[in-house]
Amino acid sequence: MSKGILLINKPAEMTSFExxxxxxxxxxxxKVGHCGTLDSFATGLLIVALGKATKALTYLQKQPKEYLTTxxxxxxxxxxxxxxxxxxxxxxxxxxxxxxKILPKFIGPIKQRxxxxxxxxxxxxxxxxxLRKGEKIEIAPRDTxxxxxxxxxxxxxxxxxxxxxSSGFYVRSLCRDLGKQLKIGAxxxxxxxxxxxxxxxxxxxxxxxxxxDKILKLSADFFxxxxxxxxxxxxEKIKMGQKIYWPLKQDKNKTVSLxxxxxxxxxxxxxxxxxxxxxxxxxx
Length: 284
Hints:
- The protein is α+β, with helices and mostly antiparallel strands.
- The protein is built from six helices and 18 strands.
- The protein has three domains: 4-63 and 198-214, Pseudouridine synthase, CATH 3.30.2350.10; 65-192, Pseudouridine synthase (2-Layer Sandwich), CATH 3.30.2350.10; 220-280, PUA domain (Archaeosine Trna-guanine Transglycosylase, Chain: A, domain 4), CATH 2.30.130.10.
């Protein structure tokens, strides 16, 4: 079974789960996962992990992201995007000056309420599934970070933004909240993810181009963690679940990694000059 990651250019009108199904069938790999769900209408970079590399998804998911998105002002949607029930709520126009005045409110550390139609689980069920059943739900605002908001184009009613943000940020929520601030509503008509950490859409492949040789080994360069390249002797210790001597002065709660032949084989923590593994990516 293959191990590593794939950089996929997700097409529109296909869910992230459907992408996984295609990859499982095409590469005959049963263990496949992804980090950072993209809505069905959205396109762009989707990182897919195969085999034991799925254990690294937790860390890949936490990396900052870049999006290119277009909002249509004056219309709202139940899902805050084009696939929901759409209503025109205002024929009023706003100018670029007004938008530039409001956008800084969404830059920096912010509290953001995720959209109801999302994969967030409430008492074991997806929020979106509960809404479709007619249930009323309440999702509490969450801490997130916006590093930069750049206006790429504006021709009323369409506003195109480039967004650099942390993990856990929802572009559809920004669209909803910006529309409220402008007092005319807004819905998302296009969304493309360009980057996740050091990974770029430019280096991704379509599902049609997908082959085994597109699989990337998990490199320490993909993460910001301190990394130690180990020898065969230490590799055997890791296989047996043993600690490794590593006199690194670092907070015991910070994650570090081990690699063998330039491929990450474990994530763990340092305690009293020893590495203790808590996620091992080896095939035994």
